[in-house]
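DATA SHEET
Item: assembly model
Revision: 1
Owner: S.N.
Input lines:
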Amino acid sequence: MRVLFVCLGNICRSPLAEGVFRAEAARAGLSEGLRVDSAGTGNWHAGEAPDARAVAVAARHGIDISSQRARQISRGDFHAFDLILGMDHRNVQDLTRIAAFDNKATIDLFLGHATGETRDVADPYYGNEADFEAAYRDIKAGATALAAVLAGKTSRDSG
Ligand code: 4NP
């Protein structure tokens, strides 16, 4: 299973999702054959480390995302990944547009796919520490549910 998390800049939400999901997947015994990555629909931050506030919230919860580097999604990603999860509705809309007709992946909304709760992980970039904590909480809940779905531990259809 190859999973790609996508947000706008790939410096706040999707790096958190990548790091938290890695930890949850390991906990669920999913690591074998699992590939996890993240990307942004935009290229403004390509090559950069995650936002210091995202690194800090992850560290507060025992996860190190500091060595990740941002990249923009590419057409090849739609063949290289089975599941591409956008953090908000705009990400999903952009992904669908970029993929056009040349897509082999399942593109879906992260929280919707993981928990059935069709809502965004709000963009914390212009927010404060509380907004980063809120994003972390959403991502933790989604990552835990997604790991359970992929491990076949729930009856929910993995889509
Ligand atoms: P992200 O947050 O999509 O969660 O990485 C953002 C990062 C950068 C910008 C917007 C959102 N930006 O406008 O540069």
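QC remark: The first strand starts at residue 2 and ends at 7.
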